[in-house]
Structures are given as C-alpha cells and as structure tokens.
Amino acid sequence: MSTWLVYAEGVREHIEAAIKRQTAQPAADQRAGLTPSTASLRVDLELARQEIRDLRAERDKLRDGLRHQLGNQLEAIAAKDLIARIDELTRHNQHLADQAQQATAHHDSLQARVAELETDLGAARTSLRRMIRNGNRSA
Fold first, then answer.
1. Contact at 8 Å (CB) between 59 and 52?
2. Which of 10-14, 40-44, 51-55 has the largest mean confidence?
3. SS (HEC) of the chain
4. Rounded CA gap, 128 and 110, in Å?
C-alpha cells in the first residue's frame, strides 16, 4: 500500500476511525468483562507452570528409560563379544589339554622304553662281564 493512498481524502478518515476504535477496545472489553482478571491470569500461569513441571518430569523419565535401554544394548553387544571370546578360549584350552594328554602318553611310552632299554643294557653288561671273565680264564 502506498503512502499517498493512506493520506488521500476519504481513506484517511476511515483509518483514523479504525485507530480510535482499536484504542478504545481494551477499555470496552474490560467494562464488558471480556478481559481476563488478574486472578484468572495467575491461575493460568500456575497451570502452565504445573504443565511445564509435568512435561519436564516426563522428559526425564523418558530420558532415563532411553539411557537404560541403550545401556542394555551396549551390554548385549559386549556380552556377545565376551561369549565369543570365552568360546574361543574354551576351544584353545581343550586343544592344549589334548596336547598335554598326548604328551603325557608319549612320555609314559618313552619311560617304558627307557626302562626296557635299561634292562637290556643291564643284561648286555652282565653278558659282557661273563665273556670277559671267560676270556680271561681261557687265556
């Protein structure tokens, strides 16, 4: 809208009349009981404050619930990794136990072989001594 239109004859009078009506409107509304009273505004303010407290409490409750849920998810992820690691260590432990059992069995068989060879060695020494004695007697 241009300023020359606002100041044109016939238009300016209507604009001034509207400004006067709007200026007088709050007083007319208050006389007619259309404006809220101070007590009413205080009650509305207190209700708004209570609603804000309720919303904050609900927000905190939802935030805590989300924290717990995320914590549980993180623990589940960590638990999966730990379970996999435990399974890996269990397999490795079983492998080492099998190797230890095989080594023990091999050790036992070697001990038996050593005992057998010591017996054979003792018999060979005894036989050699007899041969040396017999050889010395004949000579």
1. no
2. 51-55
3. CCHHHHCCCCHHHHHHHHHHHHHHHHHHHHHHCCCCCHHHHHHHHHHHHHHHHHHHHHHHHHHHHHHHHHHHHHHHHHHHHHHHHHHHHHHHHHHHHHHHHHHHHHHHHHHHHHHHHHHHHHHHHHHHHHHHHHHHHHC
4. 26
Distances (CA, A) of 91 to 77, 94, 100: 21, 5, 14
Domain segments of the chain as ranges: 1-35, 36-138
CA distances from 61 to 20, 68, 69, 73, 104 (A): 53, 11, 12, 18, 62
pLDDT in tens, 9-21: 888 888 888 888 8
